[in-house]
Design a protein that fits this description.
- It is a single chain.
- The chain is α+β, with helices and mostly antiparallel strands and 245 residues long.
- The chain folds into 2 domains: 133 residues, Jelly Rolls, CATH 2.60.120.10; 79 residues, Winged helix-like DNA-binding domain superfamily/Winged helix DNA-binding domain (Arc Repressor Mutant, subunit A), CATH 1.10.10.10.
- The protein is built from 7 helices and 11 strands.
- The strands form 3 sheets. The protein has a 4-stranded antiparallel beta sheet. A 4-stranded antiparallel beta sheet has the order 2-7-4-5. A 3-stranded antiparallel beta sheet has the order 9-11-10.
Length: 245
Amino acid sequence: MGPILQDNAKPGERDHAPHIANCSTCTTRHLSICAALGHEELLTFDHVVQHRSFPAKTVLFEQGAKADFVFSVSEGTIRLFRLLPDGRRQIIGFAIKGDFLGVAMDEVHEYTAEAVDYIRVCRIPRAGFAVMLDEKPHLMKKLHQLAGREIHNSQDQIVLLGRKNAEERVAAFLLSFRERLARIATKSVTIPLPMSRQDIADYLGLTIETVSRTISKLAREKLIVVVPDGIRILDVDHLMALADG
């Protein structure tokens, strides 16, 4: 696991992202919780949020740590995982652009969030965010929408782990990640996969050897082709049929 994020950034500070002038000109705002805010509200929000960027393997927060901040992802991919009592790692998801992290029921984080690659996030002090939720019901409504999306993703993983074999899990993962990327960009047959094969294995409840063999098998069957940093789907219909079992 990489270095744990520890800094003393003040509200309104920006790290290595000078191209973000303010919240109202952010190019990813329409994908995030900030989409619920009007222009004047964004000006106020800009004094609370901390625009930050971090390299791969930076830990945004750890499982069991106090939840002092919430995060909106502006760029990059973040692995979310829990450590089991026996020391094994279970990846519970991958956060991408537009996702919202760090909302904790008991004021402590239930999982660890670690950057897969270079990331940009908007970091918001939890106390200030709670005040905004009380004052702005439309912001709370947007948060409920994002929470519903997270529940949907969790339900998909339960089905993956409980009802599908290795080929079905890998096929379903590729198609699901493709659909998530399509919400934030143009749908493409090429799926960038910044996470490692081990990450995918830990998410799907498989070994890295099984994931590698399955991807190779799908490639031999001309359903996909492995490209640098990702996968290109050659036969979407066949892959969908395989994912559905």
